[in-house]
Write a structure and sequence with these properties.
The complex is a heterodimer. By secondary structure, chain A is an alpha+beta fold. Helices cover 20% and strands 33% of the residues of chain A. Chain B folds into 3 domains: 5-44 and 63-82 and 242-325 and 473-524, FAD/NAD(P)-binding domain (3-Layer(bba) Sandwich), CATH 3.50.50; 102-233, no CATH class; 327-466, Guanine Nucleotide Dissociation Inhibitor, domain 2 (2-Layer Sandwich), CATH 3.30.519. The two termini of chain B are 41 Å apart. The chains are: A alpha+beta, B alpha/beta.
Chain lengths: 396, 532
């Protein structure tokens, strides 16, 4: 049974569709109205506001906090300056990914880490004799993601944060309608956007202030369906959809290294020991078996396929997490794990895990597509991700 | 005289001219586009007429822009974004309203307040229209069929088109035949009993024509509307971010990347015709430009009677061009609003303001609006199609402020007092529009910061649309397919060799579709077909 998030009293009134789902044990809105269209559009054209409180959140403090995190995560967190955020993952001893998330350095000895799965034990058992504490603040800290081209001006309107100076992946503390909040320029949409971190007790005034300031900027409360669409366009992977957490699976074949899920760029190999280092160094030398790639399907072929059944190409308006096989000729060479029709790109796009030998950009593959209960396949091409990457995302 | 010789000169940087240029240049041709105005886009244009407010001055909704053109020219990468326009809202004068949106159950319940039977028939009607639309869709993605041709390829295409209907059975053929001959109201009345549906749905049959909702032949134009809706599944129906001008600028961006040169403020005075062959153009400043092909992206009247000149045409052709009906019947009012207006029948912000707002409360209302036009007056209480794009795209207006786009019919080009009476009648026309709308939106007048009124006279003078016709010629049945603009010349060629036509006055017609431009380019390059 999920529980209400700190923003639930607001969400409940707005969610006229009654479409809720369970996200990490919380009630989360799929879409407020009958479909995600307007919310998706708000993320890309104006601003969407989404409750992301269900993210697991951990405060890591102490004299050895930076060293401790560096030993656990694939990134050397000691290099992370105060007021900066980084994205990375952490692995088991075999170099297989356990989870991924952001790390914010709020102070010399003060970090906050997000995760998709409960991770307290994973971190705690690595403490040993180090001067560090790990606290699960998931329930205590509420979080909102304000994403979209208008998010900057809305935040400037309702908080005292110097948002014009807040660069991509930076963090600042601020007052928002008299409430102390943390603001990071981060998000899961691949657009200009911010995340606001606040004590759960003060969550509602923050929601109200952001919505009020956003009224003049076409803000929309948004749900997970719209978020899922934007994250696929942004090429962001999702745990339990595009990869699995190594300690939680039975089959080795379900485990992935960072190199295999597009997170190779987060791995700092040349440094003091960290969990998984030896295995990762070996894999780097040897080469990885799998790669995470972007695929775009040949749309004319897709149309023809539907036409052969006497149908218009009616693709779902939401993203699909139903994995489907990817082929080269008759041979299955992987699986597409997240796919959708991108309204902004006018393309059918997918994130897929494929064998490394077919992962080069431009490789022609095919992707399974079912019409009228019959399986067929449609040509697809390996393309670079993000599929959609607006300049405003990183722009100072 | 310029020494440079182009492969093609395109006259007019509207979206079709630019599309044609882009496809030609993509095939390696050297192309020059000449535009009379200081900005490109033609009627596909976003203009900041009032500081801080961007109007889609003329065309305002993207419905049939071919998805294959969007992909071929990579328009998404070039900044074209289509935003949803999902709902249709019809307020009535008795305080009731009808809101139809993407949620079928909610829509059914709302229609049921007027007629429980209509509520059940509504989705069925949508399916049948969608199916009919799909059957005729190949027509708009391919050059017009030529029924007189004996070319085997041509006959094969015709046979295929016929076979589609034969395969579907006689009922479908009958349905299609009815579509071609009936009036919009008659057709809709076969399905529905409530005017709350019949009136607002019938207006799709008259947009851009000088016909009324009870005029025969208007049912067919409904189908165009539904074709847009099928493409809605692939999201080609909606508002362009930044206004419709961003359609033109995205296409222009593609064209320039392929090497097209676009010159603005370069009005063409005439097309050079030597030995019955177009060889170039002369600009108003006297500059002469030569090209292997000349492509006209302006309307047929202006092309032949204006730039070519009757002396180069056979009189029978000239006569047919003269008979090609333009008869502008609509105007446009664009408003800059200080704040969001509220409907008396449904106050507050909501989905109903984010879609099409149709002022078409009854069939008689629409016929009375037409009556005015028949006798050379603008409608005192017109049919209006209203959108507030700044609700979805805040970049169009300053924070908290809005732009409202109002398509108005009827505004006959030929006023009883004469065409030249329009400038003096312009503001009275604007007043009629605003006061009619204010019956539903009380206090609208007080929110208006700026008003732009475009009469058919303005559409002609500013945008070069002869008689102010937004489609370069009515989309009535006798002016479509192999009859557009003139029988025998529906394949983008003209009686003047190397002179081509590529805009809305050719098959498949008007609207932001891009198909005439792309199909013309393909014909010039000796390629077949469109979509695939």
């Amino acid at each position: 049974m999920p529980i209400p998030s700190p923003f639930h009293p607001r969400l409940e009134r707005l969610c006229t569709s009654y479409r809720w789902k369970d996200w990490a044990g919380y009630y989360a809105v799929c879409s407020f109205d009958h479909g995600p269209d307007l919310e998706y559009t708000a993320f890309r054209q104006a601003a969407g506001l989404i409750d992301v409180s269900p993210l697991y959140k951990y405060d890591v403090r102490g004299a050895d906090a930076a060293l401790f995190l560096s030993q656990l995560l694939v990134r050397d967190i000691r290099k992370l300056a105060i007021g900066r955020v980084t994205y990375c993952c952490w692995c088991d001893d075999e170099g297989k990914v356990v989870d991924d998330g952001t790390v914010t350095r709020w102070g010399e000895r003060r970090f906050r880490l997000t995760a998709a799965e409960p991770s307290l034990r994973w971190f705690e058992r690595a403490i040993g004799g180090q001067r560090v504490t790990v606290e699960d603040v998931t329930e205590r800290v509420a979080a909102l993601a304000l994403q979209g081209p208008r998010s900057r001006v809305i935040l400037a309107d309702c908080s005292d944060a110097d948002v014009d100076k807040l660069k991509f992946f930076r963090a600042t503390e601020a007052q928002l309608d008299g409430v102390k909040v943390g603001i990071t320029r981060t998000g899961y949409t691949g657009d200009l956007g911010y995340e606001i971190w606040v004590d759960a007790d003060a969550a509602l005034p923050v929601w109200d202030a952001v919505i009020d300031a956003g009224r003049n900027h076409a803000i929309e409360p948004a749900g997970l369906d719209a978020l899922d669409m934007t994250r696929i366009e942004a090429g962001f992977i999702m745990l339990d959809v595009d990869y699995y957490s190594s300690p939680r699976v039975v089959l080795d074949s379900r485990k992935s290294s960072p190199f295999e899920i597009g997170l190779g760029w987060t791995v700092d190999l040349e440094r003091d020991p960290f969990v998984g280092q030896t295995a990762l160094a070996a894999e780097k030398r040897r080469g990885s078996e799998w790669q995470l790639v972007g695929l775009t399907a040949d749309y004319s072929e897709l149309e023809q396929l539907y036409e052969s059944y006497g149908l218009p190409a009616c693709l779902p308006a939401t993203a699909s997490r139903e994995p489907v096989p990817v082929f080269q000729g008759d041979r299955q060479v992987g699986r597409a794990t997240s796919h959708m029709w991108s309204p902004i790109l006018k393309q059918q796009i997918a994130l897929a895990s494929v064998r490394s030998e077919v992962a080069a950009l431009g490789t022609r593959l095919s992707i399974e597509h079912t019409v009228e209960f019959e399986r067929s396949s449609v040509s697809a091409e390996v393309v670079a991700t993000p599929f959609f990457n607006p300049e405003r995302k990183r722009k100072p | 005289m310029s020494r440079r010789r182009w492969d093609a000169i395109v006259i007019g940087a509207g979206h079709n001219g630019l599309t044609c240029a882009a496809y030609l240049a993509r095939a390696g041709k050297r192309v020059l586009v000449l535009e009379r105005r200081p900005l490109i886009g033609g009627s596909t244009v976003s203009e900041e007429v009032f500081p801080g407010f961007t109007y889609s001055a003329c065309s305002y909704v993207v419905s049939l822009l071919r998805p294959w053109i969007m992909r071929d020219l990579e328009l998404a990468r070039r900044g074209l974004e289509i935003l949803p326009l999902e709902a249709t809202f019809t307020p009535f004068s008795d305080g009731r309203y009808l809101l139809r949106d993407g949620d079928p159950e909610r829509t059914r319940r709302r229609i049921a307040r007027f007629s429980p039977r209509d509520a059940e028939v509504y989705p069925e009607f949508g399916r049948v229209m969608g199916e009919l639309g799909r059957l005729v869709k190949p027509v708009i993605d391919n050059p017009a069929p030529n029924p007189a041709s004996l070319d085997p390829r041509e006959l094969w295409d015709m046979a295929n088109l016929g076979r589609v209907f034969v395969k579907r059975g006689f009922d479908w053929l009958a349905a299609e035949y009815k579509m071609l001959t009936m009036s919009a109201v008659d057709l809709l009345s076969e399905w529905f009993e409530s005017e709350a549906l019949i009136a607002p749905m019938s207006v799709s049959g008259i947009i851009g024509t000088f016909l009324g909702v009870r005029s025969p032949g208007t049912a067919y134009v409904l189908l165009h509307h539904y074709m847009g809706e099928i493409d809605g599944a692939f999201r080609a129906w909606g508002l362009a971010k930044g206004g419709t001008g961003s359609v033109a600028s995205a296409i222009a961006d593609a064209a320039r990347e392929f090497g097209v040169e676009v010159r603005t403020e370069a009005p063409v005075e005439r097309i050079l015709v030597e030995k019955e062959r177009a060889t170039g153009v002369v600009l108003e400043d006297g500059e002469e430009l030569r090209a292997r092909h000349v492509v006209s992206a302006i309307d047929p009247h202006r092309t032949f009677l204006g730039l070519v000149g009757e002396e180069h045409l056979e009189s029978s052709f000239t006569r047919q061009i003269r008979r090609f009906k333009l008869r502008g019947s609509s105007g446009k009012v664009n408003l800059a609003l200080d704040s969001l207006p509220h409907f008396a029948c449904l106050p507050g912000n909501g989905l109903h303001l984010r879609g099409d707002i149709t002022i078409a409360p009854s069939v008689d209302y629409l016929e009375e609006a037409y009556d005015d036009a028949k006798y050379g007056r603008f409608s005192r209480r017109p049919f209006m199609d209203v959108v507030i794009p700044s609700l979805t795209d805040p970049s169009l207006a300053p924070p908290g402020k809005h732009v409202m786009s109002i398509f108005v019919q009827y505004a006959p080009y030929h006023l009883a007092e004469g065409i030249d009476a329009w400038p003096a009648r312009r503001e009275a026309f604007g007043d009629a529009v605003v006061s009619t709308l204010a019956e539903y939106l009380p206090g609208l007048e007080d929110r208006i910061l700026h008003r732009q009124v475009l009469t058919p006279w303005d559409l002609e003078k500013t945008y070069g649309l002869t008689e102010g016709n937004i489609f370069h010629g009515e989309l009535s049945l006798e002016q479509l397919a192999f009859q557009r603009p003139v029988a025998g010349w529906a394949r983008y060629r003209t009686p003047v060799r190397e002179l081509w036509m590529c805009a809305s006055g050719t098959h498949p017609g008007g609207g932001i579709m891009g198909a005439p431009g792309a199909l013309c380019a393909r014909a010039m390059l000796g390629q077949r077909g469109g979509g695939r």
